[in-house]
């Protein structure tokens, strides 16, 4: 097959969507012709049409997805859009307005929601994947300079990731530290709150993606208390693949991803959340967490995408 990915910010930022393109294109390129359009080229549908692709995968949504949708008239390709935007108006636009040939929902919960907007679009559930060779329990660890046990939270420093909840929860249990890894507009607010409630038991840091495996391995527990419209939460897989247990919000999507690799709780209640963290810290999660992550191997995910795209071009 000849496949094009449209990923505007590829090699510019390190987010879940860009990681998805990198990992999937790397595996598909072993059997298929792959081109990743980035920067301005990701929105240049004329170039895409000239490439005579069989499958086009639009990553950034909105105008890009609409252009890619209209490009099918002369390009004669099939359009696939993934649910990396998460449940909400962006993916309503991607499904109901752009009407791709296939919309890939990342969880069963998302698939059920997407089907209510999918008029003429086939909805397929394929989860995100994890590189099990990169993220694993064995390997280098570093001294984080924080009181043990260390609870790690990874994600953009935006309001809907709700990192402040893990700060308040760890304060409730009176021991251990919080390390938040990410960048974004909420950094100063989170730093002020963390320093006020936890003092030297708190840090915000930024690391290169290539360094993240050793950061996960150096922590004792992972928790991201984000809102229930989180598209997937690849960081849960990264933690579990590294042998680190998870405390997650109690909703259908997180239960599907984490299963026996951690515990679920009401993250909006600091006392309840803190109690669950304390309980999770008493468990050796290494085998259970790793076993759960292995269900999401990128190699398995790539096979599912390949099968889906073969079905698309047969129609």
What would you say this structure looks like, in words?
- By secondary structure, this protein is α/β, with parallel strands linked by helices.
- It has two domains: 2-129 and 297-314, Rossmann fold (3-Layer(aba) Sandwich); 150-295, Glycogen Phosphorylase B (Rossmann fold).
- Helix content is 41%, strand content 17%.
- The strands form two sheets. Strands 2-1-3-4-5-6 form a six-stranded parallel β-sheet, sandwiched between helices. A six-stranded parallel β-sheet has the order 9-8-7-10-11-12, sandwiched between helices.
- The protein is elongated, with a radius of gyration of 20 Å.
- 47% of the residues are buried.
Structure at a glance:
The chain has 315 residues and is of the alpha/beta class. It is 41% helix and 17% strand.
């Amino acid at each position: 097959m000849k496949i094009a990915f449209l990923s505007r910010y590829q090699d510019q930022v390190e987010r879940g969507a860009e990681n998805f393109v990198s990992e999937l294109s790397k595996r598909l390129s072993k059997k298929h012709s792959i081109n990743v359009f980035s920067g301005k080229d990701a929105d240049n549908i004329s170039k895409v049409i000239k490439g005579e692709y069989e499958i086009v995968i639009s990553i950034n949504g909105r105008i890009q997805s609409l252009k890619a949708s209209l490009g099918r008239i002369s390009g004669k390709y099939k359009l696939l859009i993934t649910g990396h935007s998460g449940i909400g108006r962006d993916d309503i636009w991607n499904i109901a307005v752009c009407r791709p040939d296939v919309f890939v929902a990342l969880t069963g919960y998302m698939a059920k929601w997407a089907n209510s907007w999918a008029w003429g679009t086939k909805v397929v559930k394929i989860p995100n994947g994890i590189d099990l060779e990169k993220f694993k329990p064995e390997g280098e660890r570093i001294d984080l300079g924080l009181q043990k046990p260390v609870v790690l939270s990874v994600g953009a420093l935006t309001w809907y990731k709700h990192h402040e909840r893990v700060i308040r929860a760890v304060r409730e249990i009176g021991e251990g530290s919080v390390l938040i890894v990410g960048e974004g507009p909420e950094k100063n607010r989170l730093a002020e709150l963390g320093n006020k409630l936890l003092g030297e038991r708190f840090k915000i840091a930024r690391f290169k993606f290539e360094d993240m495996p050793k950061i996960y391995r150096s922590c004792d527990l992972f928790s991201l208390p984000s809102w229930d419209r989180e598209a997937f939460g690849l960081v849960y897989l990264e933690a579990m693949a590294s042998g680190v247990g998870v405390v997650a919000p109690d909703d259908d999507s997180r239960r599907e991803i984490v299963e026996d690799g951690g515990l679920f709780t009401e993250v909006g209640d600091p006392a309840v959340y803190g109690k669950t963290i304390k309980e999770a810290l008493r468990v050796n999660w290494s085998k259970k967490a790793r076993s759960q992550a292995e269900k999401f191997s990128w190699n398995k995910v790539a096979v599912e995408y390949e099968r889906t795209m073969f079905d698309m071009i047969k129609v």
